[in-house]
Amino acid sequence: MQLVPRKPRLPSKKYQAGIGMVEIGLGLVIATIITVGVVNYFSTNSTTAQANQLGSDLSMLMGKVKGAYSGQYANVNNPRLNTGGFFSKLTSLTNNAGVVTTSLGGGTLTVGPGTVTAAGDSVMYTLTQLPDDACLPLVTSLAKTATTMTVGANQVKVAGGRPDPSLVTCAGDNTSIVVQVQ
To answer: Per CATH, which fold does 21-181 belong to?
Structure first.
């Protein structure tokens, strides 16, 4: 058996094993951007969902009030509706002895007699402190039921007319909506 001389090993280049600081930093930046986008997406969808629920609850309340107080709208107010249990089972509204707050924006709902053509011929629903993201979805959901509608200082719908979406201006997450229903 013959021995063959071995070739001498060449010095190997040292390669970095694992992840470097640059890669970690880049990964953190990407993860932060994704997280901010996801949170923003879900918070917007949450506001829209809450606005739709509030619109549904208000439509249900309007139907109950119209059925119970037809022709007697001058007698409608929050304390009477509280006593009659009208605010129960409306998940987007919190009733505290007739003081009704909304889960959306923490504003209030005030119900009382309204005037479309004569005093007491309608019921007026006033919502306060609505967030900007919820304003348009809520106006859209209530437009069919409303006889008149005012958003902020603008009359969006007049009696017998159609709503004008160009007049819906919501600002400062503190918009008020007044809806009258005959």
So the answer is: TcpA-like pilin (3.30.1690)
